[in-house]
Specification:
Layout (H helix, E strand, L loop, with lengths): L38 H25 L16 H24 L5 H44 L5 H11 L6 H40 L9 H14 L12 H4 L3 H22 L4 H15 L3 H10 L4 E3 L8 E3 L1 H15 L13 H10 L1 H18 L54
Parallel strand pairs: 1-2
Length: 440
């Protein structure tokens, strides 16, 4: 019969373990063993810690996932059309090279050398087309394993330190510290989702483009397009390792959940930079859109400063950049790489003159208004100190008032220059001004 002095004895089943009464905890129970222990409070704390651990796991899976959206083998339905097109394009280029070499066989060794190079590179390109999906899949697994080792393998890595501080940190029982770390993890998870989306789409596009790029080798071994393609793809795949920049500071923040949150904010900045620099073509646009969204929905100077550190101010350029911190528009960036690919096929692309987009030009003019006004004022002051007349006024004959130039048009002088008495018929006219008619 339950003791009437102990209301907890009236509770039956597993819920009895959560009633703090000082009695021994049943086997397998999670309730408190100390008198007066707050069972509901401890349960809430455990739930928050479980949420933080789940967020960390999701963060790892998003930044460096073990799988990818790219085809895993050459038999993939998505990869097959590109593989067919690339192989037939390489063979067609090889046939064209053989025909040209046959028609110009009288040149001897140079043509034989060209045909041999085309044969070898065509075979290598066809073999590489079928191996690209498997190679990318293995490389992606290696990157994921290396990322997990670098950030969640031992007590000195970032995510492992956060998990340890949630249990044994100096402020592990502080509700405000728990709230801060969960908030930082949620923000990091949102940015990591953007990283995941852009990386996976980029890897998928570049893997599908592989047969078309490799087919350019059949012409004679021009590897320019292949090197550019490989640089873009490897940049996408190894982008998560930018977070290694926070690794030296993990030991400094160990033991404090609040400092772990500060380190996660630094990781957010690096992830934005990862999108800005690591994702080809659309990276600056995507990162800029994220910054604009944050600036529109918050007036907190700290939040704005964080996104501005991750996404710097840039001017988009339609051609080769001429000024620091200038990026290409997505169309211009793709056009440049297309020119590299067409050049590997022997097709010359017309170069375009570069200029800023309208929005960037307006922003630059607005940003440099104060500087331009100061330079103009300094120039006017220098002319005045040197004794030169103001450029806004024309030099007028003596006795007349100088008239300012308006609208960029020249005003006629009030009095024309007199005719020289030494001028004879047939001599060159006076170029200083029109000759007035003789008046009685």
């Amino acid at each position: 019969m339950p003791d009437k002095d102990n209301p907890c004895d009236l509770i039956k089943g597993p819920a009895r373990a959560y009633c703090g009464d000082g009695s021994p905890v049943p086997d397998g129970g999670d309730g408190p063993s100390e008198p007066g222990g707050g069972g509901l409070t401890d349960g809430a704390a455990d739930s928050v810690k479980g949420l933080a651990n789940d967020l960390i796991t999701q963060l790892e899976d998003l930044v460096a996932p073990k799988g990818s959206w790219a085809p895993k083998n050459a038999d993939s339905t998505l990869y097959q059309p590109f593989l067919w097109l690339g192989q037939h394009l390489a063979v067609a280029i090889f046939v064209c090279v053989v025909v040209v070499c046959a028609l110009t066989a009288w040149q001897g060794a140079p043509r034989l050398k060209q045909m041999g190079a085309s044969t070898g590179w065509t075979l290598a390109a066809v073999v590489a087309m079928g191996a690209i999906p498997g190679a990318v899949m293995l490389l992606n697994k290696a990157v994921s394993a290396a990322f997990e080792t670098a950030f969640n393998s031992n007590e000195s890595t970032l995510f492992k330190v956060i998990r340890t501080d949630l249990e044994k940190g100096a402020d592990a029982n502080n509700p405000l510290a728990m709230l801060l770390i969960v908030s930082a993890l949620v923000v990091a998870l949102a940015i990591a989702s953007l990283v995941f989306l852009t990386r996976q789409l980029g890897i998928l596009v570049f893997v599908c483009m592989a047969p078309l790029v490799l087919a350019s080798l059949a012409r004679g071994g021009d590897t320019t397009a292949v090197k550019t393609w490989a640089m873009r793809l490897l940049g996408l795949m190894f982008a998560p390792f930018a977070l290694l920049l926070v690794a030296p500071f993990v030991a400094l923040v160990k033991g404090s959940i609040v400092m772990d949150g500060v380190l996660l904010v630094a990781a957010d900045v690096l992830m934005l930079r990862m999108i800005f620099h690591g994702v080809p073509y659309i990276g600056p646009r995507v990162a800029g859109a994220a910054r604009t969204m944050v600036e529109r929905h918050t007036t907190n100077p700290l939040a704005r400063g964080i996104v501005r550190a991750g996404v710097p101010n840039v001017c988009e350029h339609e051609n080769s950049p001429r000024h620091p911190r200038t990026v290409d528009t997505p169309g211009r960036a793709m056009t440049q790489d297309r020119g590299v690919l067409l050049g590997a096929y022997g097709i010359r692309q017309r170069e375009r003159s570069g200029r800023l987009t309208t929005e960037s030009a307006v922003a630059q003019a607005t940003r440099e208004t104060a500087r331009t006004a100061q330079i103009s004022q300094a120039r006017r002051q220098a002319r005045a100190d040197a004794g030169f007349p103001d450029a806004r006024y024309r030099t007028s004959p003596a006795g007349t008032t100088p008239a300012p130039r308006t609208g960029g048009t020249r005003q006629a002088t009030p009095t024309a220059a007199p005719v020289s008495p030494s001028r004879q018929p047939g001599t060159a006219p006076n170029r200083q001004g029109p000759t007035p008619p003789n008046t009685p």
